[in-house]
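Question: Hello, beginner here. Any chance you could explain the protein record under this note? Any guidance would be welcome.
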Amino acid sequence: MTEWLHYLSIERGLSPATLRAYKRDIEPLLQERLSLEGLRAHIAELGKAREWQAITLARKLSALRGFLHFLYEMGYLSEDWSQLWENPRYWQKVPTYLTVEEAQRLIDSYPTSKRHSYRNLLLLELLYSAGLRVSEACQLQVEDILPEEKMLRIWGKGQKLRWVPYGRSLQQALDRYIPIRVERYKPKPGKQNFLLLSQKGVPLTRIQAYTIVQEAAHYAKIERPISPHALRHSYATHLLLAGMDLAYLQQLLGHASLTTTQHYLHYLPAELREVILRFHPRAKLAPE
């Protein structure tokens, strides 16, 4: 597995966080001798998980496919086991997204009287108003904010650079948080540049971000499971429904392939797909 992880780091440029996740996904399979029977049992076990875990399951399957294909390419397997099964259909689904009203309520219902309110509200804005991945929000640095241009400089997967514009709500959240950031969170040495800080003066973690989103959902009385990634998907879905071109959305989300962005179209409710097809200039139905 060490060779594979080295390949992913050097050849594919995957981030340390992604490499750690892939390592966790593969390690259970290496506790005993790798076999087709063991693989099929492992996949069957994954298939019992709940549908709302689709993104995590898809990542696990992607890691498994990549690892098996690498073993085949390197000559450790006589045939390519990565091609021996299909994705379960629901693993490809886009996770829960909020309606526009729910997204507004999620942010507007969050109290401003709590000690960490301004930081938490900024996190929510970064996830929904800018569509950042939770890892991107947690690693965002102060110098990556360009207030004059109203742009964020984002280093995404594989350290690929993209620029994301932001609007009035996110700027207001920045204006509230930045003045209290240093005094309240006292950044540790070497951590001074990170925007979102924990009470210990280090960058906010993914787990802390998840907890903040859950807390916001509670205040907004949204009962179904909502994760930070669901806010990013809400951002993408709402832009699509407003008529944004898929190619532009791909750039904003930092997707390497337009195919990934197109998945949003497949899982929008049928009546909303029809709205896009009827009114979007690049997707209008052909005249009868």
